[in-house]
Every structure is written in C-alpha cells, then in structure tokens.
Design a protein that fits this description.
globular, 10 helices, 17 strands, seven-stranded mixed sheet, alpha/beta, Metallo-beta-lactamase, Chain A, RibonucZ/Hydroxyglut_hydro, 340 residues
C-alpha cells in the first residue's frame, strides 16, 4: 500500500512585518491551514449526533424570547468620538483616532436562519468606513450581501483579511482592495495613527464542499498610543490568548464571543462559552469586556438569554469588573472614563 506523503508548508505575507520572533508563518498540511500545529476538521459524525440528540434545554429554549435591546439611530456614524458600536452578532462599528472599521459584516438574514434583532440603522447608512476587518470566511462573519452594501456606500473602503481569503472577496466584489495577513503579522495599509495586527484564533474554515481549511482564520488587535483593542473573531479557548498578551501587552478593550457553545461536544473546539471567554479575557489582562456572537442568530442549543445571564452572574460576584453589555447601536465611548 502506497504511503501518503504529507506536504507541510509555512505561509505568510512576505511583504508584511511578522512580530513573533522566529515565526515562519502559518502551518499548512496538504494545503489545509492548521490550528497552530494540528489540523482541525469538525467530524461529520458529530453534526449527525447533534441532529439526532434531543437538546436537554429544548423547553427552556423554546420559551426564552430574549433579544438584545436596540438603540435605533445613526448619529454614531457622524460623531468624531472614538467608540465601539455593536451592530449585532460579530459586526461592530469601531472608530479609533479618526479611522473607522467594520468587523465581520452581517446585516441580513442568513440562509435558513433569520436575524432576530434589527440593525440600529439601515446598512446603507454606514458611511465613511475606512476598513473592513474580516476574521474568517464562515458565512455568519463574511456575508456577501453585507460586503456589497458596505462597498457600494464606501467606494474608498479597503479590506484587511486572512491569508487566501482574497479569492472569496474577488468573487463578491472584484474592485474591493484588500491585504492578506498571516498570524502575528502587522498590516501596512493602515495610516500611522492606528496599528492593526492579525493574530491567532482557534477555529476552522469552510464555505463550500471542497474548501475545508483552505482559508485562514484569526483575530485582530487595533493599537493606538492611548489604547489597545482586541477583537477575538470566533475561537475556542487555547494558549494563543496568553501569547497575544505577551507580544502586544494588556488589552484595554476585549470584544469576546460568548454564544453558540452548546452542545459542547460539537462546539467546544471552535467557540467559547461565557466562562471560557472570561478566562481568555483574564489571559489577555483585559480592561473592558464587550460580549458578542449571541442573541442575533439562533445557531446552537443554549437558550437565547443564557450567555448574558451567566456573564451578569460572574460580574455580580465581583469576578468580572470590566463587563459592558451595550445595546445594539449603543456607542461605548473609548475615553478615559471607560478605561479607569
């Protein structure tokens, strides 16, 4: 029987600075990106088990009608203050030193999954956007229609994306300029007043039948002289949080995913539950904790209100001092009062 020869390569954007000493780039095994050193392919049998297993919280979930509060309006777009504004799921409007970013744009219904909470304004009103930050290629983070909308309203926008995500973007909006980065790399498109780094996450990629782990995933650090902000993307709890803090220092603001974690046998290798997200935030030596990835779409087995309830319980015990749970559309101002 012929032995299969595994091809291992390390890839990065050779034009960009790599901030981790001695790091050769992201490991690929036969063309698939590894989660650090190991390949992660979510096994189909677990999906099947999930579909065939009764959710023990089914009744509780059915009667849980929680949705995040929405602060309707678009004033935040025209303000000149530094701020973070949740747009639902993992989409945020972020302004730092006059530079505006939108993370993981998803403004509409997903195929087969309706959006449970409205946007604070019409997606077309999101203007003066300098950069799209795309953490990975899953359809609830990189949405075709939302990218179209942002580009149509913001012909000047550029995208900062993971390695090999350019092919996806070209298929969506061929004229949208982008720059790809590997883990521990610093983008060089951004004006000097904000530094943007692409950092690790523990996740995976799939959009079609034949592209398993062909595109990288990750997280972002935005850094100004006054403030360091971390956007986690999607991730399981893993050693990279400590590594990020070691390289870039304590994170003043941590935007952390806290939903889509049940059943654990299916979700724990790619998402965090609220307690794990708090552990990661502590590893980052975080200041302000802003939760995301809950309440907007029904993607998993936990009841809708459970992530917020768990976070509030930990905060009430004094073990999560920096918790801020903004409404969709409510600006969290990045000023001295917030960071004290």
């Amino acid at each position: 029987m012929q032995q299969h020869n595994t091809t291992i390569r390390h890839v990065r954007n050779e034009r960009l600075e790599t901030i981790k000493p001695g790091y050769r780039g992201n490991k690929t095994i036969d063309g698939q990106f590894a989660n650090g050193e190991e390949l992660f392919n979510p096994p189909f049998r677990k999906v099947l088990r999930w579909q065939l297993t009764k959710n023990p919280q089914r009744e509780e979930k059915k009667h849980d009608t929680y949705t995040p509060h929405v602060q309707v309006g678009s004033d935040f777009i025209h303000s000149d203050q530094d701020m973070v504004v949740w747009l639902g799921h993992a989409s945020f409007f972020i302004r730092l030193n006059g530079v505006t970013f939108i993370t993981d744009p998803i403004f509409y219904d997903l195929p087969l999954v309706k959006r449970r909470v409205r946007m604070p304004c019409s997606p077309e009103e999101l203007r003066h956007i300098d950069f799209l930050l795309l953490s990975h290629g899953h359809r609830d983070h990189l949405d075709k229609q939302s990218v179209h909308t942002v580009f149509k309203s913001n012909p000047q926008v550029k995208a900062l994306i993971p390695l090999r995500a350019g092919n996806i973007l070209r298929g969506i909006e061929p004229q949208l300029p982008y720059q790809e980065a590997g883990w521990f790399q610093k983008f060089d498109l951004v004006p000097g007043q904000v530094e943007v780094y692409f950092m690790p996450a523990s996740h995976w990629h799939r959009r079609g039948l034949l592209d398993m782990n062909k595109v990288l995933w990750g997280s972002f650090v935005l850094k100004t002289p006054e403030l360091t902000l971390y956007f986690a993307g999607d991730s399981a709890l893993a050693p990279h949080f400590e590594e990020i803090e070691n390289l870039l220092g304590p994170m003043d603001v941590c935007i952390m995913p806290v939903g889509a974690y049940k059943p654990a046998f299916m979700m724990s290798k790619s998402h965090m539950n609220p307690h794990e997200a708090i552990k990661a935030y502590n590893l980052l030596r975080g200041g302000v904790f802003i939760p995301m990835h809950y309440g907007t779409y029904d993607l998993s087995d936990e009841p809708a209100s459970e992530p917020v309830r768990l976070l509030e319980q930990v905060a009430a015990s004094g073990a999560l001092r920096g918790l801020r749970i903004p409404a969709v559309g409510e600006p969290v101002l990045l000023n001295d009062n917030l960071l004290q």
